[in-house]
Amino acid sequence: MQTVDVNIVTYNSKQHLLHLVDSLVYQNIPHGSISLHIIDNASQDGTIECLTELLATRGKKFAKMVIEPSETNIGFGRAHNRAAKLGSSPFILILNPDTELAPNCLSTLLAIARTSNKKVAAW
């Protein structure tokens, strides 16, 4: 089964995480098709604790769920570069923490990606 790497950078994003993670859990693709990589930029609002709880309760739905806290805010770009190194899928989806996906979002994106010019980086 081919997976998609979903990379998220958080900073004081606790209020959004349940909706985002649940929108990934309820995608109409097989469970285990998503590798979730989250880099936290030194949040102070309980983001890490919230992510740890989500990992415990929803982590089995993902091929992999990695949470990496950073001691300092390393910035959006650098954190996404760090997240990209955690995955191995030919497909990477970068999401902001306040994103919620429609249930058919990933199946649609993956279908287009698999049939499009492989040199295209975004659809």
Largest sheet: 4 strands, parallel
- Net shape: globular
CATH fold node name: Spore Coat Polysaccharide Biosynthesis Protein SpsA, Chain A
| Helix content bin | 25-40%
| Number of structural units classed as domains | 1
What is the level-2 CATH architecture name?
Answer: Alpha-Beta Complex
Extended strand count: 4
Give the CATH H-level superfamily.
Answer: Spore Coat Polysaccharide Biosynthesis Protein SpsA, Chain A
Low-confidence stretches: none
Strands of the widest sheet, in order across it, are 3-2-1-4
Structural class: alpha/beta
Radius of gyration: 14 Å
Q: What percentage of the residues does DSSP assign to strands (E)?
A: 15-25%
| Cα end-to-end separation | 22 Å
Q: Which H/E pattern describes the elements?
A: EHEHEHEH
State the name of the first-level CATH class: Alpha Beta
Q: What is the overall number of helices?
A: 4
Task: Tell me, rounded to a whole number, the average pLDDT.
Answer: 93
Keywords: Glycosyltransferase, Transferase
Domain Glycosyltransferase 2-like: 6-120
Family: Belongs to the glycosyltransferase 2 family.
GO molecular function, one term: glycosyltransferase activity
For this entry, give a set of tags.
single chain; 123 residues; alpha/beta; Spore Coat Polysaccharide Biosynthesis Protein SpsA, Chain A; 4 strands; 36% helix; globular; glycosyltransferase; Nucleotide-diphossugar_trans
